[in-house]
Amino acid sequence: MSSDTGNEHEGGFEFGLYTLGDLSADYKTGRIMSARERMKEIMDAAKLADDAGIDIFGVGEHHRLDFAISSPPVVLAAIAQSTRRIRLTSATTVLGTADPVKVFEDFSTLDLLSDGRAEIIAGRGAYVESFPLFGYQLEDYKELFSEKMNLLLQLNDNERITWKGRLRSSLKDAEIAPRPVQQRLPVWVGVGGTPASAEFAGSIGAGMALAILGGDPTRFKPLVDVYKQAGVQAGHRQENLKVAITSHGYIANTPQQAKDEFYPYYANYVSQFMGGHSRGEQLSRNQFEQLANPVNALAVGSPEQIVEKILAQHELFGHNRFMAQFDIGGVPFSKVAASIELLATKVAPVVRRELKIKAGKLQTV
C-alpha cells in the first residue's frame, strides 16, 4: 500500500521548518517562557515561513511540562488560519500511544481547514512518557507502532473499514469521517537511526523523515539504502519513495556569527533535553565547533555553508526535503526569524538551482 507524500516544490526540492516547542530556561537568567508565549512565537514563525516561501512547517508532540505542544493538529489548525500555502505536518505524531482513527480524523479535519495542506509524520517518539499517560505497555512499543501504522494507512484509503488487530479493538464496517481534501493524506515515518524502522517505512511505501542531528552524515547512508530496497521489494515505485532529512540548525551572515550566536543556546538545549553531554557535562565550545564543522550534519553556518552541506547530503541520499529546527534552547525569536529569511532567500534558491543544473546534466549524458 503506497502513501502519497505531498506535492514537491516546482524546483523539485522542498524546504521546511519544524519545532518541538521546548520551554528552555534562559541560559543567562534562568527564566522559562510560558507555554502561552511560546505558542505565540510558533504562530509567528509559521506565518513568517509561509510569507517567505518555505514549503513545510511541522510541530512535534510531547506530553511533558517542559514542552508547549501536546496536540499537533490543534496547533496546525490554528496556523492554517493565518497562512496561505505552506504545508502543515506533525513532527512527529507518537502513533504508538495514539488512536489511529482519531489521528486520521484530526488530520483530515486539518486538511479541510487548510484547503488540502495537511501531512502526517508518524514515529515512535524519543520519549516514553506517553505510554503510562495513555495506558499502554512499554514492552508493546514496536508492535503498537506497526499495527497502528498499518491501520492508519487503511483508514487513509477507505471511507468504511473492517479491521482486526491484537492491541486495538476491532472495527466492523466503520465509517471514517471526515474525508480529506486530498485523495490521501501524505504519510511519512519518522526514523531516528535503526535499520528496522527504515525497512518498515519502505515496506509500507511511506515517506521517510530521517533525523540527522549531528555527526558524519555518511553513517546514515545505509538507512536510506535499506529504506529504498525495502520499498522496491514491496512493489512500490522508486520515485514514490521520498526521503526528508531533518536537522538542528542556525544561519547567520557569516560562519563565525552563526556559531557565536547559536552555541550558548545549543549547549543549553543539549544540557536540558538531550541528556547533557558525556557524564552530564556541558557541551564545550570545542565540541560544538566539531559538530558544526563543514563535514558534519549540524546545519550551523553562513548561507553558503548550509548550501554546501545540503548539496553534499544530496549526493549521499538523493533526498527530496530538508527540514531544520532553529528555535531550540531559547534562541530569541528575532534570531529565529533572521535564520528563516536566510533559508528562504539565500539557501533554498541556490540549492534548487544547483540541483536543477545537475539533473539537466544527467539527462544529457
From TrEMBL:
GO terms for cellular component: cytosol. GO terms for molecular function: monooxygenase activity; oxidoreductase activity, acting on paired donors, with incorporation or reduction of molecular oxygen. Residues 14-318 form the Luciferase-like domain. InterPro entries: Bact_Lucif_Oxidored, Luciferase-like_dom, Luciferase-like_sf. Keywords: Monooxygenase, Oxidoreductase. Transmembrane segments: none annotated. It comes from the Bacteria. The keyword Ribosomal protein does not apply. This is Putative LLM family oxidoreductase. It comes from Paenibacillus prosopidis.
